Structures are given as C-alpha cells and as structure tokens.
Amino acid sequence: MKFIQVITTTPNRAQARRLARALVEQKLAACVQIVGPIESVYRWKGKIEKAREFICYIKTARQMFSKLEKAIKKYHPYETPEIIALPIVASSKDYVQWLRKETQVR
Predict the structure, then answer these.
(1) Which residues contact 50 (CB under 8 A, 6 or more apart)?
(2) What order of strands is seen across the sheet that includes strand 31-44?
(3) What is the DSSP-derived secondary structure letter of residue 3?
(4) pTM for this structure?
(5) Could you say which residues of the chain have pLDDT below 50?
(6) CATH classification at residue 29
(7) Predicted confidence (pLDDT) per residue in 65-82, tens digit
(8) Mean pLDDT, the chain, as a whole number?
(9) How many domains does the chain have?
(10) Domain boundaries, position 43
(11) What share of the chain is helix, strand, coil (3-state, %, to 5)?
C-alpha cells in the first residue's frame, strides 16, 4: 500500500481543527479525524507531566510524509509535536481509490 496514517496530538480541539483544515485544504491529507479529549502522561525536560490533548488521525499518501511533517511543525504549537506514521497494510478498494484521488497519487 502507498498510504499511511499519521498521528499527532494537539493541546485543544480548536488547534486540532485548524491543523486538520490546513492539511486537507493543502491536499496533504485526504482526511483528518479528531478524537478527544484524552489524557497524556509523559516525561518532558526531566519532569513527569500530564496534559489534556486531542488526537489527530491523518490519512495520506506515503510520498506526502515529508511535506506533511513540515506543515504539522509549521502549524503546531508544541516544541516537539508527536508525528508518527503507520502503514495502512489493508483497506477496502473503494477507500484506497478515494485516498488516491484526494491526495493526488497515481
């Protein structure tokens, strides 16, 4: 498969919506699903932190990852945003056709 799901988190729903809209408008993503709030517990600069966040599941073509990563960093308020790509190893034919169309992959 030529497609991936990229995961990032944002500090609030409004930021997630802005990021999602920018990525879809720029055709860097076919779809962004926003889930949350969630609670994250993590180590940052030597301290244990806790935060309320929203997850963005971003569907895109693998070849768009570099541009997508740059865009996430541009719009993201975090110093080091989570940007993780997972391969889509199986999908319905119709969904793949839609992804291909919306990300302009041939």
Answers:
(1) 39, 40, 41
(2) 31-44, 47-61, 3-10, 84-87
(3) E
(4) 0.92
(5) none
(6) 3.30.70.120
(7) 999 999 999 999 999 999
(8) 94
(9) 1
(10) 3-102
(11) 35, 40, 25
